[in-house]
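To the structural biology subgroup,

Please find below the input and predicted structure for DUF4440 domain-containing protein, which we are adding to the shared reference set this quarter. The sequence is reproduced verbatim from the submission form. If anyone notices a discrepancy with their own records, reply to this email rather than editing the shared folder directly, so we keep one authoritative version.
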Amino acid sequence: MKKYLFVFTLLLFSASFTFAQSAEEQEIKKLSMDKWQWMADKDVAKLKTLFHPQAKFVHMSGTWTTARELEIIETGSIWYKNADVKDTAIEMVGNTAIVWNRIALTANVRGNDVVTEFTVTEVYQKEGNAWKMLALTFSSVREEHEIQH
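Predicted structure (tokenized):
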């Protein structure tokens, strides 16, 4: 019986390593989740430190710069009220992190609350000790859309 318990414990231990995220992946995931909250709170001061000055933001209605995205958030012309994150995948390539979030976004757009399913692609690059977002792209998807890990 002890032998089986030992083997079972060993299997669980090794499985946890297989599915564990690296410290950098955990840091990026937290940063991505924080970003959604900062967007909901319209906290442009925190977002300004996160967004690279040359970043691009791709939405259903257009692509714009960091300055324009911050203006949109600050004025509330798009208010990202809540991002219900259903799934996240992260890939590290050198000092670049790519994050895919599968979300149901509740946003107030032109005075109307709407809920839209998206896969959001975020690209971050480490500059010194800080991560900077280089790109954020919203891709409209069906509810059954899945991110392959």
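Summary notes: The chain has four helices and six strands. Residues 4-18 have pLDDT under 50 and may be disordered.

Regards,
Lab coordination
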